[in-house]
Each structure stands twice: as C-alpha cells, then as structure tokens.
Amino acid sequence: MDIIEILKSRSKDLEPYIVNYLKDGVPDNLMKAVRHYPQAGGKMMRPVVAMVTADAVGGKGKKAAPFGAALELIHNFTLVHDDLMDNDDTRRGFPAVHVKWDMPTAILAGDALFAKAFEILADVDVSDDKLRRLLKLTAQSVWTLAEGQQLDTNFENQPGITVKDYIGMVEKKTSVLFAAAAAGGAIVGGGTEKQVCDMYDYATLLGIAFQLWDDVIGLTGEEKTTGKPIGSDIRNGKRTAIVINALGKGGRGHPLFDELNSILGKADASDEEVRRAIEILDSLGSIEYAKDRAQRYAKCARDKLDCLPESDHKRFLLALADFAVTRKS
To answer: What is the full DSSP assignment across 156-196?
Structure first.
C-alpha cells in the first residue's frame, strides 16, 4: 500500500476548504504569511486520519473533510509558533514564517490560522449534539497542546527529566491532534462509543510513535528530505527520549557525558560539534533505543484497530502505523 499516494489523494478533498477559507483578507503581508505553510505542502496526516476513520466506522469520509481541514489549520498554527519558539529557520524546505516576514507577523499569522480553524469547524454537517462534541474535543485538544508545548520548553532547562516525562509531554504536544482527528472522524462517521474511544487511543499511540521517529529523523535524516535543519534539537537543547536515554547512561565526569553536555543547548554550535553529539548519541545506543520504542508504540496502535471491521480503510490505518516508523521525512 502506497501511503504517500493515498495521503496525496485524500488531501485533494481538503484543498477546497483550506484554499477557500484562506483566499481573502488584509493586509496582504499577513495573508501571505497565513497561507505560507498550508501552501508549502505537508502530509496532512491528521485530517486524512479523520476522513479514513469516518469511512472505517461505516460513515462517509468526505463528510469529515471540514473537520479535518480545521485540524490541519490548527496544526499549521502550532508549527508557526513552534518554529518561532525553537528558532528554526526552515519548514518543509521553505523559510519559516518568522524568517520570511518577522516575529509579530508570525504570531498574528498563527492566531489567524487558529481563528479560521473554528470557522471551518462550524460548517461540519452533523447534528447539533455532534457539532458541540466536536467543538469541545477540538478546544480541549488545543488547551492540552499548549500544556505540552510549555512542558517541552520547560524541559530544556529542567534537570532530572525521565523518558516517562517526555512521553507524557509528547502525548500532550503531538498525539493530541492525532487523537482528536481519529475520535472526531469516528463521531462524524457515526461510530460506536467503543470505536470513538479505541480510535482515540490508536491515534494517541500513533502520535507517540510518530514523534519518537521524528526525533530519530531529526538526527539521522537529510535536510533536503526532511525540509528542516539536521541537529536543530541539539542546538536547542531539546530533552528528547534519545538525549534523556544517553544522559542516563553516565554520571558527571564520564568523558562522553561531559562532551555531550557541553554541546547540548549551545545555540552557536558548529556543524562539526553537532555531528559529534550525534555520534555520541549513536555510540551509546540511544538512537536505536528510540527506534525500538517507536516501533513498540506503533504495534500497540495497530492492536487498537481491532474495533474496526475489515476494510481497505482499516488496512490503510494499519499501514499508517508502519509508515510512522519507517518514513524518511
């Protein structure tokens, strides 16, 4: 099953909602900033999960397209602010919004994307009860996402962070929109309560696997493929599962520990220093550790799909869990 091609095909159903809602507005520089990431492409995994889940529970996937489009704009809103907070210069192979324009415009572009998401959400064609449920699910997800983003920032300067702490943060920052997509898709599609709950769990586990694999790609991938600078997490001092595992393998005074710690969080670290930090992480087995954990979470995600009847839609969701931990970008 070609996941990329299916993602591209499903994404076409979302384009009218995204393009139409973002085509007008002033001033021109703000509107260009608002459209910058949505037009730059992306996998659109969250909205596709919503649509496929609606199909998988027996509903019509296209009915979930506005809900998926709303989540996609929320995701892009978080990327704009995330790049600003992390001082990342590129996204999807293009200059970050705050680099191409400026910090105030980036903040406003993120806010505007957030507002448009809820405008689109109001257009989902479901009963009033279901619409209120989708609204609450989405709002709670954004609240949880903000908690996760702050935890991620706190962890950079907080000693004693464990892998368990990191996974908890990832559930809030990354998984929550995946979970909202799957649960919301089940709601729109008329799924049972068990299907809504199990699909929420599936996507939560998928999101954790996705982020752990993202951390691996961030150190071992190629910038032309990922669209982001390799090793930026090193310069930002991110306490990923990889870094946490490595730092837990030696106390202060351990030569590798001290060398790694001298590079982590060094904003002006040279490319050679970043490469050396990655070599240390690899030699300690920490990159392999993250790969293994990501694959285990992906397996747990697949197990949650027992709630669905056999169909091509279920097979896609199974394959998506595999894709999350084998992709190159």
So the answer is: TT-TT--HHHHHHHHIIIIIHHHHHHHHHHHHHTT--HHHH
